[in-house]
Design a protein that fits this description.
about 850 residues, seven-stranded mixed β-sheet, 3 domains, 25 helices, Aldehyde Dehydrogenase, Chain A, domain 1, Aldehyde Dehydrogenase, Chain A, domain 2, alpha/beta, 33 strands, TIM Barrel, single chain
């Protein structure tokens, strides 16, 4: 059963899957290091049975916990943060009592702990942690086809976390290891640090309460107390544990790494262990501000009694007047420093031993003031020549506390030699002025091989919790230099990649599914995008004459959906290669979103899958997105992206406009090159590589430029084998189609098909069969006269077609402003030239029949 104690009471109990559990082993107490007094209650260590129970609960919880959504886990992490903050003064007082840390430092650590939990909630909502990648299938690639391959990251499984001594909150029960593992979808079993057991219980209960209130599986979190060699080893070697997070000593971390490596199934141990965090003072910086640097250095050195893993334990510089000024200033600051309690009696004892060892191997430059208070650490400053340092193992060891060694070098070359001899570090700091930048440039490549974080003109204490931070480094700073324990990248430690090859779409996880339901950034064919990817093999290919219906209106100006259905049905029965509904000929510019949706729905209903149906989208970027979404919702097979309204734009803007729409839909998209949206070659190549962009329709008539675009796009897409279509989209495209065919553009839109499909199809057949005589006759007697009539009044490219539809027996109604209706004189001319075209076609068919 779950605990019923007051949530701010400290009971001395462990927590296993939400239940309070009394240990049966050695009883330990928190110690107030400022007084040496023992704190109540006592905490009995757990044993192997408790490890087994916690690991069994975590293993049982893993499947349902990893199946939770990113949003559910984000809310869980935020609830933990809220619960920790709600503990208020109770938590702060207990941390201060168990650590000797001042209230201000502890208050800040509460904020950091809750802040990093909320950071990972944001990471989950962003979704980039999935690492989604898609390499689309290339069935036609030669010499071998490529399968459809997709990748995402999945959680490793239950994680063991070891609380740290020096950060009772931020690197402990709810610290970065726990937060990142929970974010990844891994249940966590924490071994609390004996230095702050009461703090650990309070925070552990805050997590357990969040587990219960958000409906997470009970085994998502457990908290154990026990010795590192006993319970800790049992935890790491339990086969249900799949990874370990540790912050502590070099010996402790090394032992855990060995235990994990010795398992039948070795697992990763992410151990942060030992670092002396060298500070390099370059010559001109020392010359101009040596004394200032000395004072600032001691401020960083003595912060928190030097009990930061990034404490500056080593200073390296060329000997000279500038370094002398630095040392004199640092001596004075150290001598004035007041000892403060260290975290535990054991840490204080180890610090004293380390200072004694350094005193026997280096020159003592200064010590802090003495104190009779227990467990305090007097600051210590030492110096040694570089040659001495390079030959001494003692001088290169970490002393955890406010102790640092100044290494005096002969020249800049010896500075680099010292840097090259160093072990792996969490940080390396460089102080420079502008005149030092050349030397800093020579030093930087050396430091890149030694440290996880390199900082200039600052001090290493204080680690920002963010997205770019690295708190890690080569051994012995950590056991794995490829990771970080601070910042959003920490989640990567508890994930692994899985590839999904030719998996049926219904089985694909959302992160790599068609349509991108979670709107994630994904790498598709190597490009990072939020595109709603759909399989190229599902793209409805187009062929033949393309039908662009008009939109019929009633006398009152409303859409006449019955006449629309009649018009579309008649056109489809004539045999087009595709239907482009509500596009330019369909007066897209004059349609509202609701009308558009009903028009698309009616068209797809009538077509009933016989040919692909593409719908228009355009205008403002927001409008284009809304129309694209409506097209998808109402059954369209693809989209023709019309130019944005009125504005002129650079090529980059045109690309981004296209990208913004393409990323919101998984429908195949054809871009329209005309008016104010004229692509150059690089822009056309870029948009052609968007996964959902499948075609390029030209309405400019600039054959030289279009020919170059066709060649450039084909060359760019050839390695991937992506199918791509090119359209002649000129008004009355038949007039220019022979020229477009010469540059590789075989598809074209036919406005004529809307009212005289037999003429459109007759011309297409003549062109395809090489019947030049009929092609020329139709151009001479019908298409050229139609163009001359069309050009007499702006907007007649639509008005004439609509009149032609009415002329053929379907009352398509008026056009909407700003278009104007066809005049009676022009209507009579349309009737005449249509009859002339039909006569030419009839004669040709009669001749063909006679033959």
């Amino acid at each position: 059963m779950t605990a019923t104690v007051n949530r701010t009471d400290v009971t001395g109990q462990m927590i296993i899957a939400g239940n309070p559990v009394q240990g049966s082993g050695t009883t330990i107490h928190g110690i107030d290091p400022a007084t040496g007094h023992q704190l109540e209650p006592g905490f009995a260590h757990g044993d192997d049975r408790d490890v087994d129970a916690a690991c069994a609960a975590a293993a049982e919880a893993f499947a349902p916990y990893r199946a939770t959504t990113s949003e559910e886990r984000a809310r869980f992490l935020e609830t933990i943060a809220d619960n920790i903050e709600a503990l208020g003064e109770t938590l702060i007082a207990r941390v201060c009592a168990e650590s000797g840390l001042p209230q201000g430092r502890v208050t800040g650590e509460v904020g950091r702990t809750s802040g990093q939990l909320r950071l990972f909630a944001g990471v989950l909502r962003d979704g980039g942690w999935n690492g989604a990648r898609i390499d689309p299938a290339l069935p036609d690639r030669t010499p071998l086809p490529r399968a459809d391959i997709r990748q995402r990251k999945v959680p490793l499984g239950p994680v063991a976390v070891f609380g740290a001594s020096n950060f009772p909150l931020a690197f402990s029960v709810a610290g970065g290891d726990t937060a990142s593992a929970l974010a990844a979808g891994c249940p966590v079993v924490v071994k609390a640090h004996d230095a702050h057991p009461g703090t650990s219980e309070l925070v552990g209960r805050a997590i357990a309460d969040a587990v219960a209130s958000t409906g997470m599986p009970a085994g998502t979190f457990s908290l154990l107390f026990g010795s590192g060699r006993g319970l800790g080893t049992a935890l790491v070697t339990d086969p249900r544990i799949k990874a370990v997070g540790f912050t502590g000593s070099r010996s402790g971390g090394t032992a855990l790494v060995a235990a994990a490596a010795g398992r039948p199934e070795p697992i990763p141990v992410y151990a942060e262990m030992s670092s002396i965090n060298p500070v390099f003072l370059l010559e001109n910086a020392l010359t101009t501000r040596g004394a200032e640097l000395g004072r600032a250095f001691v401020g960083s050195l003595t912060l928190g009694s030097g009990q930061f893993c990034t404490n500056p334990g080593l200073v390296i510089a060329v000997d000279g007047p500038g370094l002398t000024s630095f040392v004199e200033s640092a001596r004075a600051a150290v001598a004035e420093s007041t000892p403060t309690p260290m975290l535990t009696p054991n840490i204080a004892g180890c610090y004293a031993d380390g200072v004694t060892a350094l005193s026997g191997a280096a020159t003592v430059e200064a010590r802090g003031t003495e104190s009779d208070a227990p467990n305090t650490g007097r600051a210590a400053l030492f110096s040694a020549a570089a040659d001495t340092f390079l030959g001494s193992e003692v001088l290169q060891q970490e002393v955890f506390g406010s102790s640092s060694l100044i290494v005096r070098c002969r020249d800049a070359e010896q500075v680099r030699a010292v840097a090259a001899k160093l072990e792996g570090q969490l940080t390396a700091t460089v102080h420079v002025d502008d005149a030092d930048l050349d030397e800093a440039g020579r030093l930087l490549p050396v430091l890149e091989l030694k440290a996880g974080r390199i900082l200039f003109n600052g001090w290493p204490t204080g680690v920002e919790v963010g997205h770019a931070m690295v708190h890690g480094g080569p051994h012995p700073a950590t056991s794995d230099s490829r990771t970080t324990s601070v910042g959003s990248l920490a989640i990567e430690r508890f994930l692994r990649p899985v590839a999904y090859q030719d998996v049926p779409s219904s089985l694909l996880p959302a992160a790599i599914a068609d349509g991108n339901p979670d709107q994630l950034w994904r790498r598709i064919d190597g490009r990072l995008t939020q595109d709603c990817f759909s399989l190229v093999k599902e793209f409805p290919m187009l062929d033949g004459v393309l039908f662009f219906p008009v939109t019929p209106f009633t006398a009152s100006g409303d859409v006449d959906y019955d006449r629309l259905a009649e018009h579309v049905a008649k056109g489809v029965d004539a045999g087009p290669g595709g239907v482009f509904i509500a596009c330019g000929t369909g007066e897209f510019h004059a349609l509202g979103l609701e009308e558009f949706g009903r028009i698309v729905a009616k068209a797809t209903e009538v077509v009933a899958g016989r040919v692909p149906v593409f719908a228009g989208a355009g205008g403002s970027v927001q409008q284009a997105k809304e129309f694209a979404a409506s097209a998808k919702a109402n059954g369209a097979d693809g989209i023709l992206l019309l130019p944005p309204y009125l504005v002129t734009m650079p090529q980059a803007g045109l690309v981004e406009y296209t990208r913004a729409v393409a990323e919101t839909t998984d429908l195949p998209l054809v871009v329209y090159n005309r008016g104010n949206a004229r692509f150059d070659e690089p822009a056309a190549v870029e948009v052609a590589q968007f996964p959902t962009v499948v075609g390029f329709k030209d309405g400019t008539g600039d054959l030289d430029k279009v020919g170059r675009i066709v060649r450039a796009v084909k060359d760019a897409l050839a390695p991937s084998g992506k199918q791509f279509l090119f359209f002649n989209g000129m008004p009355t495209a038949e007039v220019t189609q022979q020229a477009y065919r010469a540059i590789g553009v075989t598809l074209y839109s036919s406005a004529t098909f809307a009212f005289a499909p037999e003429l459109a199809l007759g011309f297409y057949d003549a062109l395809e069969s090489g019947n030049q005589e009929l092609t020329d006759a139709l151009l001479r007697d019908f298409f050229h006269p139609l163009v001359r009539l069309r050009d007499q009044v702006p907007g007649y490219a639509v008005s004439l077609i609509k009149s032609g539809v009415a002329m053929e027996g379907i009352d398509a109604g008026p056009v909407r402003p700003p278009l104007v209706p066809t005049s009676d004189v022009h209507l009579r001319e349309l009737i005449r030239i249509t009859a002339a075209g039909r006569a030419v076609l009839a004669d040709a068919l009669a001749v063909q029949a006679a033959v």
